[in-house]
Design goal:
This is CHAT domain-containing protein. By secondary structure, the chain is an all-alpha fold. The protein is built from 27 helices and no strands.
Length: 707
């Protein structure tokens, strides 16, 4: 079965993709717009009692449905949980029970969804490649295997749906339903074997005994005949707008977001203009699906506005005479969407919507949905810094992940649990959750999830003072971000996020390596930053000033790394000279590391040991000279920092005269920038060096957040 648009965006009472008509405002908003202001909406910190009640699972096992409408809800729940055989069993038990046409239509729609999903699952299982099969995408061919009995059952379902819609007083909708589903049955019965994209475009066709069976011919021909008869009887062709609305209601959701978004937009635009009766109002159901698609492509403000409109419209329709059949489904879907879209702008409101969605699942037995909503709730609680509530929710969520049927569904909840426990400094529990994510993501080749897990593990090790472990995790994080950024399947809109993640991770590797005295790893991180900056400069993926700042950081880090390496070489030369002087026949250490005569101590070190450092310093200075317009103040800061570090390096090598000159330049630069604390510190060092004292420290460390 195709995965839902979001693990937490649907129910059986509200399955992913259900909600309200946007009216005239269904135009996608720009990514730079702000989320609607909800400051006037009263939101409260949830009590532990309310939280405990919302996180309580449904009664297990659930009581049997008490009517056709409850059976329809249960069937949708089972479909979303991918328990298709159970869904079909429940639907068949209630199919012949008398009920109002609107309720009967709900059940038939749910049964059709279950039957098509079961068919899709069988097709995916039958099409696993054998030793002699090859495919162009993902290692398996896609082939629909629909037997004669399947076609007969689907045909009977469609007939019942059409009769039920006519009985409800919507003959035009019945005709459109027959037209749309008839065409879908013909596609299922077609003998085409869908292989690679190339073979599909070339129209490759293979014969199939299923397609030539009498049932297949009946299924495809019957729908055509009914469609022609309806056109002749009504005199007019079915309006395209009605076909668009029915297609979105009755057909399975397409896998591509942009395809579904176009179809939903067409249906929502056509819906207010339709002059024909419809069974209930499909507007809220279609609009919340459209809002979910807007969220999927990053238009959060418009998705939020639309979801709020959905809730208002659903409440209005529910209050009318006869109620609104999809009220619960629509409301839970809208609340679930708002719990995600409001997370950054208004996390407390997001908490309220997540709880409202969970409270709408009293009789929904759907672990993936429930776990997804609790994951959203936990993230919002962490953003609100509600530690008691977040700790309780994380414990409940960690136990619920064991109820999920697939390993890939456990990754997001475990990441949320790990992040909460790191924030709460519960490091042992965080290590368990994040290590499990690393293991699962490695098995599933999910680099994105492993990237997030390694980032959190690096923070965990750093806060515990485990520098080497933090460095290892940061290097892995940078490698994963680099891989995802360069992956051809990464959408262009997402690529800048991973490029920035790579640069940030490499910048942290650089700092940690310098703090740990590992110049080789620091220099490697610097090279990776410079390589990425060069490849991205001028492409528009990231602002040029951000790329320049990363490059300046990396160049100065490389200069420090080379200085540390040179100092280590000088210490090794001095130690070797001391040992040689103490040995019988020793010469007192007059030779350098490369055999060059050494006559004047550390300040007369061979040029060979200083060349890489001087080269790195020149490259750093050249980078600072390429300052982007309007960021001269930032360049001045980096210039003062460079002189300060250069003075410390020279002093550590014993070159006091040059160290004093550089230190005085750094002091002037710090004072010009108004950094009196740094100026006082370097002035004290100048006085100390001038009196013959040894260097007391190596200058300021790299800023923790230079960007």
């Amino acid at each position: 079965m195709t995965a839902p648009r979001s693990a937490s965006s649907g129910t059986g009472a509200a399955h992913p993709g259900d909600g309200a008509r946007p009216g005239d405002g269904a135009r996608p908003g720009g990514a730079g717009e702000s989320v609607p202001d909800l400051s006037a909406v009263p939101v409260q910190v949830p009590s532990l009692a309310r939280l405990r009640e919302a996180l309580r699972g449904p009664e297990t096992p659930l009581p049997p449905p008490r009517g056709v409408r409850e059976a329809a809800v249960r069937v949708r729940d089972l479909v979303h949980a991918e328990r298709f055989a159970e869904a079909l069993y429940v639907a068949e038990r209630f199919r012949d029970i008398p009920a109002p046409p609107s309720q009967r239509l709900e059940l038939l729609r749910a049964q059709l969804t279950a039957a098509l999903a079961a068919h899709e699952e069988r097709g995916a299982g039958d099409d696993l490649p054998g030793p002699d099969q090859s495919t162009a995408r993902g290692g398996h061919a896609e082939q629909d295997r629909t037997g004669p009995q399947d076609l007969i059952a689907l045909q009977e379902l469609v007939r019942d749906m059409v009769r039920t819609i006519e009985d409800a007083g919507a003959p035009e909708q019945a005709g459109a339903t027959l037209e749309v589903l008839g065409a879908h049955l013909r596609r299922l019965a077609a003998p085409t074997r869908h292989g690679s994209a190339a073979s599909s475009r070339s129209g490759a066709v293979s014969s199939s005994p299923v397609a030539s069976s009498p049932a297949a011919a009946e299924a495809s021909g019957d729908a055509r005949a009914h469609g022609r008869h309806r056109r002749r009887r009504d005199g007019d062709a079915i309006p395209s707008g009605l076909l668009a609305v029915v297609g979105c209601l009755e057909l399975p959701r397409p896998g591509a977001v942009d395809v579904e978004q176009r179809a939903l937009r067409e249906a929502l635009v056509a819906l207010p203009e339709l002059q024909v009766p419809l069974v209930d109002d499909p507007g809220p159901l279609l609009a919340v699906r459209y809002a979910q698609d807007l969220e999927a492509i990053g238009w959060l403000p418009e998705a939020t506005r639309l979801a709020l409109d959905v809730l208002d419209e659903a409440s209005r329709l529910e209050a009318r005479e006869g109620g609104f059949a999809d009220a619960a489904r629509v409301a839970v879907s809208a609340h679930a969407l708002l719990a995600r879209t409001l997370l950054e702008e208004n996390p407390l409101a997001a908490v309220g919507h997540a709880l409202a969605a969970l409270e709408g699942l009293r009789e929904v037995e759907d672990p993936p949905l429930r776990v997804g909503l609790i994951t959203d709730l936990l993230r919002a609680l962490v953003r609100c810094d509600l530690q008691d509530q977040a700790t309780f929710t994380a414990g409940r969520l960690a136990s619920l992940t064991r109820t999920l049927p697939h390993d890939e569904q456990r990754i997001e909840p475990l990441l949320a649990v790990g992040a909460q426990r790191v924030a709460a400094r519960r490091y042992d529990g965080a290590m368990v959750a994040l290590s499990e994510v690393q293991s699962l993501s490695a098995q599933l080749r999910d680099r994105r999830s492993r990237l997030e897990a390694t980032r959190l593990l690096a923070r965990l090790h750093h806060e515990q003072g485990q520098g080497l472990e933090a460095l290892d995790q940061l290097r892995l994080s940078a490698a994963d971000a680099r891989w995802v950024a360069d992956d051809l399947f990464t959408p262009l809109a997402e690529r800048p996020r991973f490029i920035r993640a790579e640069l940030d991770a490499e910048a942290l590797v650089l700092r940690h390596a310098l703090d740990l005295g590992r110049p080789t790893e620091a220099a490697a991180a610097s090279r990776e930053v410079v390589r990425r900056v060069r490849s991205e400069r001028g492409t528009g993926s990231l602002p040029d000033v951000l790329l320049w700042d990363h490059e300046a950081d990396a160049r100065i880090g490389a200069m420090i790394a080379e200085g540390l390496r040179a100092a280590a070489e000088l210490r090794a030369v001095a130690d070797a000279g001391d040992r040689h002087a103490g040995a019988p026949g020793g010469t007192g250490g007059t030779g350098g590391a490369d055999g060059t005569p050494r006559t004047g101590g550390a300040d007369e070190a061979p040029a060979k040991t200083r060349t890489p450092y001087e080269k790195a310093r020149r490259e750093a200075m050249a980078t600072l000279e390429r300052v982007p317009e309007g960021h001269e103040a930032r360049a001045s800061y980096w210039g003062a920092y460079l002189e300060d570090r250069h003075a410390a390096m020279l002093a550590a090598r014993g070159d006091r005269s040059r160290a004093l000159k550089a230190a005085r330049r750094a002091e002037r630069a710090w004072r010009q920038l108004g950094r009196e604390d740094e100026a006082v510190r370097i002035a004290e060092e100048i006085a100390h060096w001038s009196s013959g004292g040894a260097p007391r420290h190596a200058g300021p460390s790299l800023p923790s957040d230079p960007h």
